[in-house]
Amino acid sequence: MDLMKPRTKTLKRPKLLTCTTAIKYAFSAGLIAFAYSQIGDGRYLIAGYLELAAIFLISNALIRKKRIAGWVVNGILLLALNVQMAVLTFGNTYISLVMMTNLDSVQDLAGQAFVYGTAIASAVILSFLPAKDIRIKRTAEARLLALVLVCELAFTMFCGSSFSPIYAYWTLAAQKIEAQAPQRNIQAGVNYTEFFHNTTVAQKYKKPEELPENPNVIVIFTEGLSENIIEDKRHIMANVAAYENKSVHFENYYNHTFATYRALSGQLYSGYQLNNYDANSLISLQDILADKGYTTTFINTETRNLNFTNYLIEMGFDEVLSDPEVVSNGPADSISDKDAYELLYDTVVAQGKEDRPFFTAIYTFGTHTSLDSPDEVFGDGSDSILNKFYNLDLQFGKFMQKFMKSDLAENTVIFFTADHAAYQDRLFNISFPDYERVHTELDRIPFFIYYKGIEPLAVDVEGRNTLDFAPTVLDFLDISENNFFLGTTLFSGLDNNNNYDTIFADSAVYAITRGAEIRKLTDTEKNIIKVKLGQYYAAKSQALPE
């Protein structure tokens, strides 16, 4: 009997390794299939399975020669594949540079933290399960690997490399290098502020006579809102839609960058950001209004996010309302949209009693990717995406009801827009299955101007973007000052000489929206814009001339 015990143990180990090998490859195969079921593009399925087959064959040969080293290599390769497929499943794209640059705001994804955490933990654990070599003749194994590689080469030639999960890491590294390229294209010792100096803001809109000389200004930046959500036939955002229709509103208007850190600064300065936290020494919308006698305020709804708070302070408002003790039931230690609109109302009512006109801006956080509504829900409440936009709309509607009954309605203009488009992730696709998106970060967004008694007007801007926000606000207010804006007023026609206000740029991703159609830039177009952006990034870090 004693002689049989060792033999029994040695028999169990191969069976265990066979089981763990089957589990880890089945997990990867299932993850690829699930990603395909969410994306619906068979090219991701083909690329995923080809690379899984290559990983199996390469790992199998390594494990046969050096088991431990083979296990390690196998685990690393499978983890690299699994992570990309998990990100593709939830984020509708492989890991991008903009994702990496926003990792310090990962708490903003709190709404799906359990789902994301479970997926990552599963990928790590299952990728590094021990594996055994599968007995295949070496000649057959070599031929199979050659066949797989030939198939992948042919697939890449016909479909491109963008569907490859492993190649996406190379793309990510290339994007990081490319993102720094604009600054390398500048000449040392040149003051580039002169390149972007404008002596005026174009005046194409005559301010209505019923408005006072210096009306109060409220700017509402809504987190991640695409125009299709407002237009949706389920009336998810009926209040916003109603005010949009009775306002001066801009159609076919797009975001010029992504995500929030780039977008808020980009709109207020009418420029681009190289990195999230870059300061801008040029002139902003708030600077110009302050010079005209306005008090300038930004209401921070992420009061416990130190990076975001400092980012807002750097933009030179007279006051950033940011008390970390003022946190409501919003996710990620934020102020909920309900309380944000109540805070906005209380703030502007108090400011309206002062002798000076005010410019008060707010960024509402509750519609951020992954979040659900903590207050009102849409229908049965089963769709978190619809819930949060429906809730945002109701809070906006309540704010407007109070606003219209207040004295502020007589002398205040509201500019309603978004920081950027809604991100097209898995949940977005589920909530809006019939809406076709061609870019995960770029889309039409709302922008409308409202005051009591305004004459409704729809302006088709033909694909122009949020670079034009600041000059449009100033044009509407009949204010023209020296500036360094890359955009111009939306009340002017599409200007073929403007190199920027139909260009989308985030990190190293570029697109053009001219004519309200999204397409990639040609290499020539990209090279031109990269040189110009390099000059702009240099200018925004240089001191202004006396």
Structural class: alpha/beta
Round the Cα radius of gyration to an integer and report it: 27 Å
Roughly how much helix do the residues carry, as a percent range?
40-55%
Q: Please, how many helices?
A: 18
The geometry reads as: globular
Unreliable stretches, pLDDT < 50, 5 or more residues?
6-11
Query: How would a textbook summarize the main sheet?
Result: 8 strands, mixed
**N-to-C span:** 97 Å
Indicate the proportion of strand residues.
Answer: 5-15%
Q: What order do the SSEs take from the amino end to the carboxyl end, as H and E?
A: HHHHHHHHEHHEHHEHEHEHEHEEHEEH
Strand order in space, largest sheet:
4-3-5-1-6-7-2-8
Mean pLDDT: 92
Count of beta strands: 10
TL;DR?
46% of the residues lie in helices and 9% in strands.
Structure description:
The chain is α/β, with parallel strands linked by helices and 546 residues long. It is 46% helix and 9% strand.
Topology:
Layout: H1 4-39, H2 42-65, H3 67-91, H4 97-101, H5 113-127, H6 138-159, H7 167-179, H8 181-184, E1 216-222, H9 227-231, H10 238-245, E2 248-251, H11 260-269, H12 285-291, E3 295-299, H13 306-313, E4 319-321, H14 337-352, E5 358-364, H15 384-405, E6 412-418, H16 426-431, E7 447-450, E8 457-460, H17 469-476, E9 503-506, E10 509-512, H18 523-540
List keywords for this structure.
about 45% helix; globular; about 550 residues; alpha/beta; two-stranded antiparallel ribbon; 10 strands
